[in-house]
Amino acid sequence: MDTQMLGNTLKSFVLSVCLILFTFNTHAIESIAKTALLIDLSTGEILLDKNSNERTYPSSMTKIMTALMAFEKIKDGTLSMDQEFMVSNKAWQMGGSKMFIEVDKKVKVSDLLLGIVVQSGNDASIAMAEGISGSEDTFAIDMNNLAKKIGLTGTNFVNSSGWPDDNHYTTAKDLAQIAEYTLVNHPELYEMYGITEFTYSGIKQDNRNPLLYSFDGADGFKTGHTEAAGYGLVGSAERNGRRLLLVLNGLETSKARAQESLRLMDWGFNNFQLVDFYQEGEIVIEANTWLGEQDKVKLITQNDISVSIPKTHISDIKVEVLVEEPIPTPISINDQIGIVQIAYSDKKLQYPLIASEDIDQKGFFSRITSALYYLILGSN
Hints:
A hairpin with a 2-residue loop joins strand 9 and strand 10. The N terminus is likely disordered. The protein has 11 helices and 18 strands. The chain has 2 domains: 120 residues, Sandwich (Peptidoglycan synthesis regulatory factor (PBP3), Domain 2), CATH 2.60.410; 236 residues, DD-peptidase/beta-lactamase superfamily (Beta-lactamase, 3-Layer(aba) Sandwich), CATH 3.40.710.10. A 7-stranded mixed beta sheet has the order 1-15-17-18-13-12-16, with no helix packed on it. The protein has a 5-stranded antiparallel beta sheet with strand order 3-2-10-9-8, with helices on both faces. Helix content is 29%, strand content 31%.
């Protein structure tokens, strides 16, 4: 029997959410950076977006991709931390920030990585690139291949250090994706971004990331500066289970970069509350089936559902479960059946609900009987 003839009804359950009303004032925030992006990685929500898809020059923030290339090789076993690379004349002669490696001498991968991550060494970046891919030009091709793999859409690399080049560009959004990929796939190697100083050949250099010294919970990533790009930063910090990721570029001074990164991180942590609604696989509702061997199907969440909500809107939260019933059978496990909608202020966020089990359709005679009951009594 055609279930559309019987009509589907939209069923909405408003769940009560008992939450504390906070008295903090929260409102939209602006940034003096030319491009800015602040993401709560705990939920994937964007807390601030200013020109995040606009093309910009990554300068030394390029090196988070150079390090990621090495991380990927270490993870798949084709590179080891103890492996040594010979320093070429090109690497040794490179200008800008340096690790001060010596030509025709071998350097361990572990030292080169710290030279890249902590000291922002252009020489270390080239030595790593040549060691992995044979030449920096080939390494740049490999960088772009990895960029495509992780979904970057506005980036093109031509070198490993971020040395100025009109064809070497990215976006704040793409830098954030590189950083997030690193955090998710290489958490142990990521820890080196939190090291505040590194000494090589008797020369001690401090990490240039201002957040490491001024913001509790900061543990990465990288700063950058060229005349064309201005001052930029990719920063990350974790507090009480929440991790924020910040990308800034186009600031006029290193002082402005330090102040702006601290201000935005403070704002992100202080003015938003992480609210946990459901755990992955939690039963949200049992919905009626149509002509199924079971009268009801359990609908569960596909993933954890947590939302970063401005503290001044905590009391406004409304949670609705939207399901069209009865649900036609057969039903297969993991079929999307309904939606959980979380609304506050002027925002509406939706998350899928899936079937927790297979439910077959009744036999022919049982279907006829159930259909008659439905027509006569209005129930399944």
